[in-house]
Design brief:
globular; TIM Barrel; homodimer; about 40% helix; alpha/beta
């Protein structure tokens, strides 16, 4: 049943991260042709932004080592945005060589995670991204800036809004078109979300440049999303079937499942363009490829998937 | 990290249903002494309302056939509310004989579910409850009125707010002190929750007589809870560890896990009196008794429970 709520956006763009953030965090390495079929199926289900892969060194993310082979297989997808992650200038070169027109860089709000993930300080990482963003913008590419650990950090605990604001500003100053605020360890609750968004928009950041990226590690992702929608956010990251968020593995990151998100959005009368049945069937199909049930409750309910 | 949000209540009473609604919907029949230990542990974790069991005919709910044996084992729990479900006058007699001072009746907003669950029309069921509520109130007992299928029904689809409002009024007119609005099949989204609560409070029902009972079948329970809190609701039903909501069984009802709820409430600075670590340990212990992992994401994250 569709029952709108006051003050919410009429339309939300789902930024689908399953093929990149999802598969990157799954144990199994998925064959290139399965990845290509996955992206095609996601597009056929109505997703208009499908993050396709990452041009990071294969040593760090062997799951996505086939970026050069995969990306050309997606060339027939017209009208679908296919951003790719680029960690540095070498990654940007590889993405450019294949004709990618949307890239994303991956920063951290905390020193501990910047050190753990990039072996740099926060500012050293920003300095590394500067030429990446500048060269990408010089080619009129769209640049997204991911920001990890915006709410809590496994080593440092709670993260102050002011620290996040500083790195957001730096990413925008570099030239990023859009931010994606990540609750990488899933600890945020709705008041914290509202506080961060209020700080950003009060500082003059347009809400249509802010995306949110919540994790369901503690089951909070959808409540946090509701708080973000109430603040006017219209870009929400999610992972088809909750990929990368398998609750059965120690590496569980708990990505918000796109299906759970879309169920809420459609129930609220918010347009997404997504065909939920088709999307769930795609996630059930991918779960079969991975040999385990989808962690998405909506996928399980709609496809009667059982263990 | 605690970051309050504007306009939310300072304190919420968690109505813990794991021992009744939870165990009733689990395949395994739990030994009476384990149930008693479970209720004691829940109380020790700070839960002040623990629905203990059901005085329904054992033929219908064999999992709770030991109500007569269990209830006396809880007599030492001072200051803890121990409501019990009574389906009819016979059930009320049994509960009264054991000294219960809080009972609950179980109505349906839809004809299909009234027929399926009680083999009566909605109005016939209300007529059956009339002497139950009247006799209970005559003894100064507290009476809760559960109302199933307040948002959607598996046979009838979406449920109109007006129909729910009518049965709510009838339950209050019978003498119920409190309502529990159930999204039994978990289909509701936040706008629908707000619409129903608005209709009830506009009709003069005090918000402190309204409890909400959401299911996580489609992952919506916590977002719906946030909408209810924003409307001023201060009584929220939940099931420790998501008991009864095992996502691995066809009978999955997907009860909201108390731990996921408490994580959000505490993050919002809302007092519950619950010790989340102690509660999660209790749910992990019960999951061991049941031989399967807890479906609560918070329990899994806090206790590193894996499959």
């Amino acid at each position: 049943m569709t029952v709108p709520a006051a003050g919410l956006p009429a339309r939300v763009r789902v930024h689908e991260v399953g093929a990149r953030d999802g598969l990157q965090n799954e144990k199994a390495v998925v064959p290139t042709e399965v990845k290509a079929e996955f992206v095609h199926r996601l597009a056929a289900a109505g997703l208009t932004t499908v993050e396709a892969t990452s041009f990071v060194h294969p040593k760090w993310v062997p799951q996505l080592a086939d970026a050069e082979q995969l990306f050309p297989l997606l060339g027939d997808l017209e009208g679908v945005r296919l951003p790719v992650l680029v960690p540095n200038e070498r990654g940007l070169d590889r993405a450019m060589a294949l004709g990618a027109d949307r890239v994303a860089v991956f920063a951290s709000a905390t020193e501990s995670f910047a050190k753990a993930n990039l072996n740099r300080t926060v500012d050293e990482a920003l300095a590394m991204f500067a030429p990446v963003v500048s060269r990408a913008k010089g080619r009129d590419m769209h640049v997204r800036g991911y920001l990890s650990m915006c709410f809590g950090d496994p080593w440092e605990g709670p993260v102050e809004v002011g620290r996040v604001l500083r790195v957001c500003r730096a990413l925008l100053d570099l030239g990023c078109d859009e931010l994606s605020l990540g609750d990488t360890i899933g600890v945020a609750t709705p008041g914290h979300v509202t506080a961060l968004l209020t700080a950003l928009t009060t500082a003059g950041v347009a809400v249509d440049r802010i995306g949110v990226h919540f994790h369901d590690t503690y089951g909070q992702a959808l409540a946090n999303t509701l708080a973000a929608l109430q603040h006017g956010v219209t870009t929400v990251d999610a992972s088809a079937g909750g990929l990368g968020g398998c609750p059965y593995a120690k590496s569980a990151t708990g990505n918000l499942a796109t299906e759970d998100l879309v169920w809420m959005l459609h129930g609220l009368g918010i347009e997404t363009g997504v065909d939920l049945g088709r999307l769930s069937a795609t996630s059930a199909w991918m779960a079969d490829r991975l040999g385990r049930p989808s962690p998405s409750r909506t996928v399980r309910a709609l496809t009667h998937q059982e263990q």
